[in-house]
Amino acid sequence: MAIFDQEREQMERGELAQLQLERLQATLTRVYKNVKFYKKKFDGIGFLPDDCQSVEDLKQLPFTTRHDLAVSYPYEMFAVPLREVVRIHSSTGSPGAPIVLGYTARDLRTWAHLAARVLTAAGVDRDDVVQVTLSYGLLTGAFGFHPGAELLGASVSPTGTGATARQVKIMRDYHTTVLVSTPSYARVLTGEMEEQGVDPKSLHLKVALLAGEPWTEAQRREIEYALYVTALDYYGLSEALGPGVAGECKNRQGMHLNEDHFFPEVVDPQSGLPLPPGELGELVLTTLTREATPLVRFRTGDLCALVQERCPCGRTLARMSRIYGRTDDVIIVKGINIFPSRVGQILARIQGEEPADQLAVGREGHLDYLEVRIAVREGLFFDKMTRQRELLQQIAHKLAQGIGVTPRVKLVEPGSISREKETSPLVIDLRR
Ligand code: DLL
Predict the structure, then answer these.
(1) Mutation pick for ligand 1 pocket among 235, 368, 403 (CB with most ligand atoms within 8 Å)
(2) Are 98 and 344 in contact (CB under 8 A)?
(3) What pTM was computed for the model?
(4) Residue 336 Cα: closest atom of ligand 1
(5) In 23, 115, 240, 289, which residue has its Cα 20 to 30 A from 173's Cα atom?
């Protein structure tokens, strides 16, 4: 099995620890000098970057949260002047403001390099035709893999999201061998193939690289059977970089985490205390090479376990398990992260106060949907059906602009909604 960067991916662990320490020291110095947020945090506990003599010292430092990033909107977390930033992406923030992420030219090269590692681990090379069905836009989805596949010399077809019938045609006509997608969209594609009477065995597909939302071994088997491929898991998040943080090799014994670029910790989500290797907890990442938006001890909200033993493929990097869920109330619909409180805020803006609402996430056929249920009350109950319909459409439109997914909006009887928490709408996930 090929390895893209043998020197690093098979590094002896002692050497890796030394490299991580050097990169960590450089990162801490850079953020202390250039990011007010970190200067204040470090000063608050009397910590100077020179105090970091071992990676263990990192544990003294406070966490960085999505909330910290959102309130730094737009550029407060940037560690370089804007003139050095060549790309700007954004991600869903909490409590509402989006999170803005910058990339220097070197960050982009690193990203392509790491995506190329993940693709190589999946068996992709220059003979492949890679169809990227993730979104090309403000979210980081497609942008990690695209340059990574080009770096390998593969032929990339940037189909983006949607237009499913055309995706299947392209897959067949262009002889696509590698599908990059979310697990739910892979299932939408299989549905479309069934409808078009396309036999997956007649296609050239060999690997599907799937991520962006939690999925299970059962779903893996289902997708492998339906698409006649090997389905592999990979992991990424915009705050740290985007796709390219970790990815499975064909042994499928966990995702190889690019530890020379991200220092991982797994902590107890309640106490924040470190957990021993192999235990399930919240993944915390410190970026080691990120120039534009470096992060120290970023709480990903993702639940997983890490092991350090060498994989039979020869890689020595730690391996992370599947993501088993999230520690916060984020729900992921069609690969897009949604904070329920954000929905509440948008509704409040339209209607003047936060209504008793409820979010339901469900699946129809292969496709996830989000339903926002609003209790009928004065001002929302119109005699004229047309006026009511207009209002619901307006709410759906405003929500779509704010959260990136167009929901179904439904009026329901007031008593039919139970509200457990004062500040957050109640979420029902009907997919489980
Ligand atoms: O950075 C882009 C991405 C798109 C990564 C597609 C991978 C695939 P974000 O909008 O920042 O997405 O969302 C990152 O998605 O914190 C996890 O909760 C979830 N996630 C990503 N990969 C997986 C996975 C991109 N393999 C958030 N399994 C993360 C489960 C995943 N959840």
Answers:
(1) 235
(2) no
(3) 0.90
(4) 10
(5) 115
How far apart CA 373 and CA 198 sit, in angstroms, is 38
Q: Which of 114, 213, 262, 336 most suits a substitution to test ligand 1, by most atoms within 8 Å of the C-beta?
A: 213
Tokens linked to 335? 């690969």
E strand or H helix that includes residue 89: strand 85-91
Ligand 1, atom 20: closest residue by C-alpha: 212
pLDDT on residue 360: 87
Average pLDDT over residues 141-158: 95
Two tokens at 406? 């167009």
Q: Which atom of ligand 1 is nearest to the CA of 242?
A: 1
Tell me 212's DSSP state.
S
Give yes or no for a cis peptide into 277 (omega within 30° of 0). no
Atom of ligand 1 nearest to the CA of 134: 6
314 φψ region: left (φ > 0), alpha (ψ -120 to 50), beta (else) = left
**Model confidence at 382: pLDDT above 70:** no
Closest protein CA for atom 7 of ligand 1: 212
Per the listing, tokens 């980081």 go with: 140
Ligand 1 nearest-atom number relative to CA 243? 5
- What DSSP element (H or E) covers 150? helix 141-152
Residue-level pLDDT at 334: 84
| 362 within 8 A of 430, measured Cβ to Cβ | yes
Report whether residue 137 contacts ligand 1, using a CB cutoff of 6 Å. Answer: no
Q: Residue-wise over 138-166: b if at least 16 C-beta within 10 A, else e?
A: bbbbbbbbbbbbebbebbbbebebeebee
Write the residue with the smallest CA distance to atom 12 of ligand 1: 237
Cα(8)–Cα(271) distance, integer angstroms: 33
Coil, helix or strand for 170? helix
Whether 416 has a pLDDT exceeding 60, the answer reads yes
The answer, yes or no, to whether any atom of ligand 1 lies below 6 A from the CB of 233, is: yes
